[in-house]
Every structure is written in structure tokens, then in C-alpha cells.
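Section handout, structural biology tutorial.
Before the tutorial, make sure you can parse a SMILES string by hand: atoms, branches in parentheses, ring closures as digits. In the record below the ligand is zinc ion, and the chain has 107 residues. In the tutorial you will relate the predicted C-alpha cells back to the input. Do not try to memorize them.
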Amino acid sequence: MKRVFTADNIALAWHVNNILQSNSIKAEVRNDSLHSAQGGIPVTECNPEVWIFNEADEQLAAQLIEEQQNSNQTIQKPDWNCAKCGEQNFAQFEICWNCQTAHSETD
Ligand SMILES: [Zn+2]
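Predicted structure of the complex:
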């Protein structure tokens, strides 16, 4: 396991996780404060992190994350709020990071 990204917010962490997964890199989000809070333990001091399972994927992961961060600056589409759970999602999300409801289902 190796940490490849520390996010400012949980939605961004899940977005990076989705990018890695879509490139066949096995990854997971840690310090998911929202989910921890549901368990009754408030976690406010920990930023969400993205970890990869195979350290051999690190270089590709770093490259994908860098591309994602560069592309973020030119995104024109607005964020959207999930119709099911109300969470805000980045425009490029196909599904809600929180409840996996497809964006197309919320139109
Ligand atoms: Zn949702």
C-alpha cells in the first residue's frame, strides 16, 4: 500500500480514486471523514487520502493525478447535486461519489 494523494475534500479524493480505478489501478480512499462521522466518531483533523495497493502503479498514478489537477482548471461544466442524497459532485463525475446514483438518473 502506498499513499499517492491527499485531498482537500472527500469528493476530490473519491474523484481521484475513480480516475485510478478507471485506469486499472487498484486504489482506496482513507480518512473518509463523512463515513467515519456516521459511525459516531468525528474526524475533522484528517484530510482524505488515496492509497494504491500496488506500488508499481505509483508513477502512473502520479501522472494521472497531475493530469486531473491540470484539467480541473479548464472545466466549464457546473458541479451537480445528487438528487438522491444531496451531496455535491464534480461535473465530470458520472455517478454520485456518496451513493453511486448515476448523474443521468438525477436529471
Ligand atoms: Zn448521492
